[in-house]
């Protein structure tokens, strides 16, 4: 089988060098497209009741949320929203908190029809399925204190975790809606309101608040830290309506990731991306191996790995400038692996044509 492929293998160093340059140019174009900062895909709903997030939409808090020092280590959060019914975009980060020093403090993410409460201080993250229905309004309430963390949907408790607490210090950062502060994780959908309390609401209060919100009335102000009702219908600033509170939300003109990761740590949560990164660098490793004049096979493969690694790191650092692209160590490692595999393939194909000594 290898012999049948021999006529297809380029042997000219000039041709291999030209192919390598073409591959580099094509890969740069693919990795950096669309070569510009995307417009912010956030718009007011036609009826003025809510803001709609498209793919690559973000709303940012103007200042960190202030957690009073005299409060218990508890909080409640209310979200009135409708996930977009596109099966290809049924996940993303709905809401999060961040600081420039800590791009990830706490996020609330949609994963299919479930909700994930993710903390990044080494504590336990929580997930519950079948909370959201696509294209249906949902009123989510999350409460946490020293007894338990619980999640409610439309006033009814969906799940709780006895003995598990999410400390309210994880909320002491800037608020971000529609994605994360560290990387692009767009959440398409509509949001009508957000409220944050410095106390844990009980089941009866959760039910009462649900009725109050859906009736268009003002919720209970006891312990209210932030209240954003997206009912203005226009403008780029949403005021904090909590009594005595400050810190509005702003809709930037361009999509931005405010505290983006530079070479995010290795993770293997996206197998399709891993496979694509490996396959994408195999042709470059193939042509580079044939172009190089290093005589020893292992040394030549090492040079291919170094060149692919340097090129990959350069791409990842350039992608930091583009909010719709992610910068990841995982990509670097898988790109190097793809280049080495391509080099091995070239060696295997050409080695079969070398006559064996008697």
Query: Could you please say which CATH topology of the largest domain applies here?
Result: Jelly Rolls
How would you state the average pLDDT, rounded? 90
Number of domains: 2
Helix content: 25-40%
Order of helices and strands: HHEEEEEEEEEEEEEHEEEHHH
Round the Cα radius of gyration to an integer and report it: 26 Å
Shape: elongated
Distance linking N and C termini: 23 Å
How does this structure look, described?
This protein is α+β, with helices and mostly antiparallel strands. The protein has two domains: 2-35 and 262-351, no CATH class; 42-250, Sandwich (Jelly Rolls), CATH 2.60.120.200. Helices cover 29% and strands 23% of the residues. It contains six helices and 16 strands. It has helices at residues 2-5, 13-32, 203-214, 271-291, 297-319, 329-351, and strands spanning 42-44, 51-53, 59-61, 75-83, 91-98, 106-111, 114-119, 126-128, 138-144, 148-153, 156-162, 174-177, 189-197, 224-229, 237-238, 249-250. The strands form two sheets. Strands 1, 2, 4, 9, 10, 11, 13 and 14 form an eight-stranded antiparallel sheet that branches. The protein has an eight-stranded antiparallel sheet with strand order 8-7-6-5-12-3-16-15, with no helix packed on it. A hairpin with a 6-residue loop joins strand 7 and strand 8. Helix 2 (13-32) packs antiparallel against helix 4 (271-291), helix 4 crosses helix 5 (297-319) and helix 4 crosses helix 6 (329-351). The longest helix has 23 residues, at 297-319. The chain is elongated. The mean pLDDT is 90.
């Amino acid at each position: 089988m290898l012999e049948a492929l021999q006529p297809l293998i380029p042997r000219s160093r000039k041709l291999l060098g030209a192919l390598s340059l073409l591959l580099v140019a094509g890969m740069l174009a693919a990795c950096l497209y669309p070569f510009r900062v995307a417009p912010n895909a956030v718009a007011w709903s036609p009826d003025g009741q809510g803001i709609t997030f498209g793919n690559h939409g973000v709303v940012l808090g103007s200042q960190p949320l202030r957690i009073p020092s005299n409060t218990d280590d508890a909080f409640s959060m209310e979200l009135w929203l409708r996930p977009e019914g596109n099966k290809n975009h049924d996940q993303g980060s709905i809401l999060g908190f961040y600081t420039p020093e800590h791009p990830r403090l706490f996020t609330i993410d949609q994963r299919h029809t479930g909700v994930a409460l993710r903390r990044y201080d080494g504590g336990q993250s929580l997930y519950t399925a079948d909370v959201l229905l696509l294209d249906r309004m949902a009123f989510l309430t999350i409460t946490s204190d020293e007894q338990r963390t619980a999640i409610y949907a439309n006033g009814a408790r969906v799940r709780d975790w006895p003995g598990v607490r999410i400390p309210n210090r994880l909320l002491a950062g800037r608020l971000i809606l529609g994605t994360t502060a560290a990387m692009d994780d767009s959440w398409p959908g509509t949001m009508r309101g957000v409220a944050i309390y410095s106390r844990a609401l009980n089941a009866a209060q959760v039910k009462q608040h649900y009725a109050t919100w859906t009736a268009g009335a003002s919720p209970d102000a006891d312990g209210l830290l932030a209240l954003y009702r997206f009912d203005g219908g226009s403008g780029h600033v949403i005021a904090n309506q909590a009594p005595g509170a400050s810190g509005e939300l702003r809709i930037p003109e361009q999509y931005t990731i405010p505290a983006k990761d530079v070479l995010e740590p290795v993770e293997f949560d996206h197998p399709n991306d891993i496979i694509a990164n490996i396959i994408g660098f195999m042709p470059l490793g193939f042509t580079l191996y044939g172009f190089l004049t290093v005589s020893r096979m292992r040394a030549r493969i090492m040079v291919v790995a170094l060149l692919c690694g340097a090129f990959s790191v350069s791409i990842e650092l350039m992608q930091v400038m583009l909010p719709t692209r992610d910068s990841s160590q995982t990509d670097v490692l898988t790109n190097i692996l793809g280049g080495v595999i391509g080099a091995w393939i070239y060696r295997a194909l050409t080695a079969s044509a070398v006559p064996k000594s008697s």
